[in-house]
What does this fold into?
Amino acid sequence: GENVEQHPSTLSVQEGDSAVIKCTYSDSASNYFPWYKQELGKRPQLIIDIRSNVGEKKDQRIAVTLNKTAKHFSLHITETQPEDSAVYFCAASLMDSSYKLIFGSGTRLLVRP
Amino acid sequence: GAVVSQHPSRVICKSGTSVKIECRSLDFQATTMFWYRQFPKQSLMLMATSNEGSKATYEQGVEKDKFLINHASLTLSTLTVTSAHPEDSSFYICSASPPWTGHEQYFGPGTRLTVT
It folds into this structure.
């Protein structure tokens, strides 16, 4: 089955700097890669996703890149703000009839004011 | 759109009792819902895929007789933790995918279960 690895486990950046979180996956058939942000005690919120027919996607300060050959994808947050502090999870999914997501282990991002 | 609710948000039960958690899609129909468990400072672990009108599909290592899933309608799935033990204490979260989103999953607010 699919296995998703995520690095780093913790990341501390100065406000205004960029943050990069990386994930690798094992199943080459995976073709949908969402990123979720989870604040303490709250539900995960979808922040951006990418499908395998696209190499990069951007939404304001957030971007995701995908390298299917290497089986890795990354989340880039620019001009970080203290409210970006949260745990970020990557996930991978086969867009087949199950659509189930396999999550990475999470990255705790701290943006220092 | 794409609102998923859960009830209750918190529950405390005694060891040996059963607890039922509800997951509802409020503004869309969901033939499939997913149940996850999240321990403190850990990731979301998929427990099972809930299928409307048929049996749930459990992930490896998840006891189907302990975690009973019923998806009786297109807007409701329930997870019953039977004979709960302290080690079942966790954050249980469901998710569903609205048909217009291309399989984006939206999560419920979660249920914090504490077994004493």
